[in-house]
Amino acid sequence: MSEKSDHLAVLFADIVGSTALYRRLGDVDALRVVSACLAALKTVLPVHRGRLVKLLGDAVMCLFPDADHAVGAAMAMQRAVAELRPEGVELQIRIGLHTGPVVVGGEDVYGDTVNVAAYLADAATPGQILIAESTADELAPELRESVFPIFDAVLKNTLAPTAVCEARWRDDFALRTHINLQIRRSIPEDAGSMMLDLGGRQARLDHWHSTLLIGRAPESGLVVAHAMASRRHATIRLERTQFYLVDHSTNGTFVTRASGEEIHVVRREIVLEVRGEIRTGFSRDEHDGPCIEFRRDRRSLYRV
Q1: What's domain 3-175's superfamily in CATH?
Q2: Residue 97: which pLDDT band, with cuts at 50, 70 and 90?
Q3: Alpha-carbon distances of 271 from 20, 156, 230, 237, 290, rounded to whole Å
Q4: Which residue, 1, 119, 125, 233, has fewest beta-carbon neighbours within 10 Å?
Q5: Domain extents in the chain
Q6: Quick one: CATH architecture of 193-297?
Q7: Residue 242 and residue 132: Cα distance in Å, rounded?
Q8: Do 193-297 and 3-175 have the same topology in CATH?
Q9: More confident call, 238 vs 47
Q10: What is the pLDDT of residues 213-267, one digit of tens each?
Q11: Which of 118, 4, 126 shows the shortest CA–CA distance to 60?
């Protein structure tokens, strides 16, 4: 596979609250809503010379030739979703994008530019577009007028803080909160992410979403419909660079490591390694019940 490096723009757009949507609407209706939103995002791409790199569950990763096309597409995506009400559901997305050297290999892209764009998407609030000041400086004047600094951050693999800016797509500037730029917020060094999969339902843990509740309770990040699972069965949390599973349950949690070893965790915590399986209240040898598969990637979820 041949690879080449170019100065390009990488964009991540993430549907907000999709996990809760599946709990509220059920799998079939929620999938229909999410699919309609993703389709609306993809229709924006040809107009702005963008291409879809990949789908990441309820998010899209896209590539553009420059900052102007990427920011223009981001604004168009926000407007499209604001007008979209599939099944009567109001949706929001958050977007992060970044320009810089990108290694293009086949259909995929790699590099720190990709990682920074992913961080900015995670840092954005619903309905927001975040870009770094270096990207803002590449914009044409008519787009640059819509970009405003909102906080300082130390981005990945940089030492000095840089301004993180919002590209505003709505004419509601008078209603915006004035930002105190003397308050410095730093995006943490990448400890990687953890992906969990329960029968096709996925959840992600990282520095922006650092805890996850597992159990039968409807408010759980992963709802386990099994009689041996407690309502609030276990919590997974990210602390510094380690992911910990903390059991709160009656029957305990069974964790299978990559080596095949199974550990029964009862009212204590355990460090989750690179990959494995989690069962709530029963051993793999006892029942053929729901199994949560987990995998962590120190590089980043978004790098292949």
Answers
A1: Nucleotide cyclase, GGDEF domain (3.30.70.1230)
A2: very high
A3: 27, 25, 21, 10, 21
A4: 1
A5: 3-175, 193-297
A6: Sandwich (2.60)
A7: 28
A8: no
A9: 47
A10: 999 999 899 999 999 999 999 999 988 778 999 999 999 999 999 888 999 999 9
A11: 118
Enter the tokens of residue 301. Answer: 């979820």
Partnered with residue 17 across adjacent β-strands are none
pLDDT in tens, 119-131: 899 888 889 999 9
Give residue 68's pLDDT band: very low, low, confident or very high (50, 70, 90).
Answer: very high
Establish how many alpha carbons lie within 13 A of residue 151's alpha carbon, considering only the half-sphere containing its beta carbon. Answer: 13
